[in-house]
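Internal QA ticket QA-208
Title: Verify multi-chain structure generation after dependency bump
Assignee: T.L.

Test input:
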Amino acid sequence: MKLSASDRISQLLIIVLLLLLCVSVIYPFMYMLAISLNEGSDAAKGGVYLLPRQFTLYNYEVVLGNSVIQHAYLITIARTIIGTAIGLFITLLAAFGLSYRMMPLRGAILGYVLITMLFNGGLIPFYIQLYDLSLVNTFWVYILPSAFSAWNMFVMMKFIQGIPEALVESAEMDGATPFRVLYSVIVPLSKPMLAAIGLFTGVMHWNDWFAGAFFVSDQNLIPVQTFLQQLLSAQDISTVLGSNNNVEALARGTAMAKVTLMSIKMATVMVSAIPILCVYPFLQRYFVKGVLIGSVKG
Amino acid sequence: MLDRLAKYRWQYLMILPSVVLLFLFSYIPMVGIQVAFKDFHIGSTIWNSPWIGFENFAFLRDDQFWVVVKNTLYIAVLKFAVGFPAPILLALLINEVRHSGFKRFVQSVSYLPHFFSWIVVAYILQSMLTLDGGLVNQFIGNLGGDPIFFLGSTEWFRPMIVASGLWKEVGWNTILYLAAITTIDPQLYEAAKVEGAGKLGQMRHITLPGMLPTISIVLILSMPSLIAVGMDQIYPLMNPANQPVADVLDTYILRSGLQQGYFSPATAIGLLSSVISLALVLGTNRMARKINGEGLW
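Actual output:
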């Protein structure tokens, strides 16, 4: 099909606009990466825009050598794995159970779930409850309150209801219990959906800083994002340099002048962002699929 | 009846953990709202705290509270006015791209920021805007201007929140719209061409109406978070310098409740904002029903 002149101009205009959008997304990460790979005192002079000028891995050595950050990383990884596994398991069980349309009380239970999506007690009563359950200042405060997600449950249920009932029925005819049906019929057919929801749950855990900041006071329990949040308003680098395991790296004389608060901050934020940047290109289609499963109105 | 219940015993067992979790983490906090009408201190229980009526609602006479309400509404309206139409426009733009490879590239890139936390966004803003060595101030300096203290400014705070919110979510929010566009019957476009409609005409008379049901669903679903203007986003960027405009209901609740220990008054404020959110959802749903013939339920 031949394009008219005005069509070509509008195409060009659209492409330029969208390219600008892409640059605005990608550039900040490149900038932060450049600063984090540059000697701090040199970067502070300005002029580092895209590539490091005085290349060094020193910022990363300091950040990765910090025992608080190392520990925070372990917490983040642990809560992401455990939280996602438990969250998927509990929510999938409920979704499968509620996918039986003829089940007595099903409507009532769905209503019970729906109400929690429309109304909640608010932050303070929630906190009081966490306190009463002795969850405050424990690792489980990251896992249990978010283990069931009403939104994910509805997405899963809708997906499961789209699986031909004949498959479930024939398995039941063979004497399979619902647990067996779930394990050998539903789960194999739900892999893309489980992948999508698992990824969303995982990202939620990876990115959550709030619980670590307000439901936990023990510095040994904070995740990376909460550490970042504390570092964001730090006025000097003692937050990072104190309790550093990498003492010999720190002690390397003049090297101290090579880090600044900004270069350390950029290295820390990149350390938290790089895993997501790495997995994103491969998993992107699952994310999109996940949103679309959820949007089909039923 | 008992037979039918017994027939589904395994299913009930499967649902049980979730019912218990909701009971513990959603319903008990709802019951806990009574703290708003009690004199509660941590250490005592919700039940044995004395009732004090509406004393906790004394904040309604506090000027500071109304400043916070104004800030909340201001940011909510700004974010909505920019954040709601933007993905619709972006979806229309992306839809017009003819080169399918480029189209996929734009989509992939624009979804990316959604996967980073607001903390990371705050760092990006800091690296761009800080006084000592921030990128934008470097440019202003090179052009001979005076550096601007964006991060501690009452004027720049709202634009900063709106722009960074847009940056993070605009791409992601196009997904549903782009999906809606693909379901539009191509014959409609052919017919419009025959009638002599140009690109813009097709957009207005076919693409937009085709997106309308999705638009209304997104509108309803965005209502609960309207008043919750994104504490996740605002809290990391708030500091004493910009607090006069940055302090919103949620940060106010956080500060007076969790940090200063005024649990009861903070609960009272939370109750007020929950009720407003609920009213917004129900109201929008009713409106959508009138306009579309159907709401979300």
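Spot checks passed. Chain B has 16 helices and no strands.
Status: verified.
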